[in-house]
Amino acid sequence: MNEAYDVSHFLAGLMLVVSFALIYQDRLLAVLRTFAIQAIVLALAVAWQALVQDRPNLFITAGLALGLKGIVIPLALHRMIFRLGIHRDVEQVVGVGLTMLFGLALTALSLMLVLKATASAPAVAREVLAIALAIILLGFLMMITRRNAVTQIIGFMSIENGLILGATGARGMPLVVEISVAFSVLIALFVFAVFVFRIRERFDTVDVEVLERVRGDRT
Amino acid sequence: MTSSVYSILGQGIQTLLVLAIAPAITGVTRLVKARLMRKSGPPLLQGYRDLFKLLRKEVIVADTASWLFRVSPYLIFSLAWLAATLVPTFATGLHFSWTGDVIVIVALLGTARFFQTLAGMDVGTAFGGMGSSRESMIATMAEPAMLLVVLNLALIASSSRLPVIADYLVTQPLAIRVSLALALMSLVIVALAENARIPVDNPATHLELTMVHEAMILEYSGRHLALIEAASQLKLVMYGSLIICLFLPFGIASVDSGPAAWFVSLVLYVGKLTLAAITLGLWEVSIAKMRVFRVGEFLGIAFIFAFLGLLLSFVTEELLR
Amino acid sequence: MNEWVYAVIIIPFVSAAILVVLPGYWLTARLNVLASFLTLIAGLNLMRIEAFSNSYLIIDNLNIVFVVLNTLVGVTTAWYSASYIGHEIETGRITPASVRFYHAMYQAMMGAMNVALLANNIGLLWVGLELATLITVIMVGIYRTPEAIEAAWKYFILGGVGISLAFFGTILTYLAGQQALGEGLPAMSWSLLHANAGKLDVPLLNLAFVFLLIGYGTKVGLAPLHAWLPDAHSEGPTPISAVLSGLLLNVALYALLRYKMLIAANPLALQPGPILVVMGLVSLIFAAFMLYQRRDIKRLFAYSSIEHMGLITFAFGMGGPLANFAGLLHMTMHSLTKSAIFYAVGHVAQAKGTQRIADIRGLSVSHPGLAVALGLGVLAISGLPPFGVFMSEFLILTSTFAREPWLALLTAFGLLLALGALLLRLQGMLFGEPNEPTHTVKASPVPVVVHLILILIAGLYLPGALVTWFQRAAELLG
């Protein structure tokens, strides 16, 4: 158990650090690269769980995470950024320092919360779930504090990465891991095919500040 | 010989050792940097020659200087030397080791920095004040990170005394610990900042507006300058010893291992320290100095790493309880 | 007998596959209606089955109500959509290319909702709901105007966030079940979890419920998680507004109810009733106030949906046989009425060429048929007799008054507020001199008429069979 725990702890911790790095970046291309790294670490973590839990179908999940989120999606977004000429800096609603402090607070909060609530679950599951929740909250933070449609997508997919990590940590959870990967694909296709082009087409920018015309409650 | 004689002897050796090799270590870094830039560079022993030269030179003190200006070099030197002797280098459990608490060391260095900054402002020049204010800003951001690293290690080893931590990390199986890796990275960044190394500060610069540490000591000359130079060299050795003892403690002897073990440990220690000095030289050549405004972000990263390492340590402790 | 269960799921997906490859709007629209009708038949046949469950699907007294309602509104909306979208294509607001996959998506969405309703596996429930949400997101953005894209984007982001939280809650529920049921499929089966509710790990269950409440609550439109709802309703095509209000909100509520039943069955876990009551009441009153400021007709009725979903949640939160019965009844009535209203509103907007309330006047003169439909629909949804909504609201109020008089007063206050706002706007739209422009709209009156008749009948006389049916479902809800 100790070796299993150690490696999974290492990979989960690494993924958490990369999630912080994701918030820290202020250039779009760096964000894409960091996201690719997060996906690769996720693939490694899932592959390790596949080994340890003796569930070979998780290898498929790991492969999909690596291939799709680690390679295909960053590449596709990369090309799209160049083709659409999207402005390559990311404006931030709140400064980096404050965002990082929020991130730390959210991480501490989620660790406390999950560790308290899961007193009876096995150690690996508890820790992976705690870190998964932290990654999810960091993804939310990223979506809130960045004013660019592309980074909102990346934040959303980083939330998904956290979810996949959590799902693999919960031993023996059937179906769902494959399904969540499939949905990542769906969402990715979705987003590309439908929205970014449309937004760019209509607004000449992907700064979501511009998407304020239909301000819900004013009409 | 009895154990207490050994411990006193060892402590004495350690005290003299750190003083003796400090200029050489700085010399190694300088030499590596120069060679990588295709210059021949100063010889290794140049540091000693510089210090002796300065000791013999006349001291010139400004009219506007107070007693603080004259006293500070001695204070800074002794504090730095004291801190350096408390960090285990080749043996743990030496005579002063009961005081070798990391928090004590941080406090000693903090006091030294305090006097340094005051001395920088003492004469009333613009550059001195600027150096002092920058130094204080860097310290404000580096100290919390340092303390979090200390807390992290104390949490793991259940004590904040350096010899105990070193012993713990030597004897425990070397598991892959993310929290330790994060603590290491954080400590390295803090060490770079405290020792006025690139990317935080350039120790070889002549442009006053880019100086942080150098600006504070612009007014010093003669033996005062020698003492301050020796102090910063000792500080570098101290941080190197700290990182080695915490993260690379293999081969360290204990107080009653006998002279043979001590000798081996000594050689290992000097080797590790030299390696660290060479790495520092390589690093300084590869990276550019940051703008002063960016230093805050850089140290912020150290803080984040330290905090994350602490959180992860806490999680592991909770789970393996 | 059990084949009908699979039929309810398979028919929509197969139809979707067929509709993808067929060209031409006319043909696919008709096929869409046919497929929905077949699904309705399958759904009605489910009523004859005894309770059934395997590791993936379940039919019991609760979800049969939802399935029948779902398939019914699915047919009428498909019928309505045929003429509505046809008109949109004629006037050029939509190009035939952008509606190429519209009907396939419609069927896929219905299939996904049925999957969610029939799912016994909590993962499958999540999958169905997410798939349905994603498809509606695409369909909301179908007009490709800046506002539509913004609305769809907002819906996507908020919906996606909600879905993610719900998934996390699902993982936690699985972990809670793992203690009692072991690893693998059994711990994800709702019926097994419910049967062993007392043995589930309590802190995990509580945490899971919080996440599920926020996640699925976003999709129900409970305040303060409702931000996506008004935009999605107003910027998407009207059939989609009807689908959202009449169907998707219900399916999300169903998911929430299943989990509520689960956690309520464990006496040591936090009691979901009060939370639902509070959230429902807050949504109700908030939405009622917001109704006064609305200037867009579809947005007006979107807030009305928020208000009614709040009321339904309130009723289910109160619990007990009478309140649950009233909640189920109200949910049915609301689906039928709200979709009828949207049918009328859609044609009104087409007739007037605008959605701004201030620009719609004199409908009773220019389009008397539409005016009657809209008028009756609004009267119904405001809770006036003799329509079914009055009956269900009355039941909710009386059952609440018997237990918590103050809550009943607050609820009544919210309902009266909403009544005032809706009647005010209605008056402005129906009466007075008609203004330009006035287009003619060839619309089929069938969907609206069918719904209005149904709610009228329900208001005057609820057939005994129906009452028992709802009662049994109410019992299950506890």
Written overview of the protein:
The complex is a heterotrimer of chains A (219), B (321) and C (478). Chain A has 219 residues and is mostly helical. Chain A has one domain (2-218). Chain A is built from 7 helices and no strands. Chain A is globular. The model of chain A has no long low-confidence stretch (mean pLDDT 80). Helix content of chain B is 72%, strand content 1%. The mean pLDDT of chain B is 88. By secondary structure, chain B is mostly helical. A two-stranded parallel sheet of chain B has the order 1-2. In chain B, α2 (46-56) runs antiparallel to α9 and α5 (126-157) packs parallel to α11. Chain B has one domain. Chain C is mainly alpha-helical. Chain C has a domain at 271-478. In chain C, strands 1-2 form a two-stranded antiparallel ribbon. The model of chain C has no long low-confidence stretch (mean pLDDT 87). Chains in contact: A-B, A-C. At the A-C interface, α4, α5, α6 and α7 of A face α5, α6, α8 and α9 of C.
What is the strand and helix layout of this fold?
The complex is a heterotrimer of chains A (219), B (321) and C (478).
Chain A lengths: L1 H23 L3 H26 L3 H28 L11 H22 L5 H23 L3 H21 L6 H28 L16
Chain B lengths: L2 H34 L9 H11 L10 H20 L4 E2 L9 H21 L3 H32 L4 H10 L6 H17 L18 H4 L5 H26 L5 E2 L4 H28 L5 H28 L2
Parallel strand pairs in B: 1-2
Helix pairs in contact in B: 1-3, 1-9, 1-10, 2-9, 3-4, 3-9, 4-5, 5-6, 5-7, 5-11, 7-9, 7-11, 9-10
Chain C lengths: L2 H19 L3 H22 L5 E2 L4 E2 L1 H31 L10 H17 L3 H19 L5 H36 L8 H6 L6 H19 L7 H8 L2 H27 L7 H19 L6 H22 L2 H32 L10 H4 L1 H14 L6 H16 L1 H26 L15 H15 L3 H14 L1
Antiparallel strand pairs in C: 1-2
Helix pairs in contact in C: 1-2, 1-4, 2-3, 2-4, 3-4, 3-10, 3-13, 3-18, 3-19, 4-5, 5-6, 5-10, 6-8, 6-9, 8-10, 9-12, 10-12, 10-13, 11-12, 11-17, 12-13, 12-17, 13-15, 13-16, 13-18, 13-19, 15-17, 15-18, 16-17, 16-18
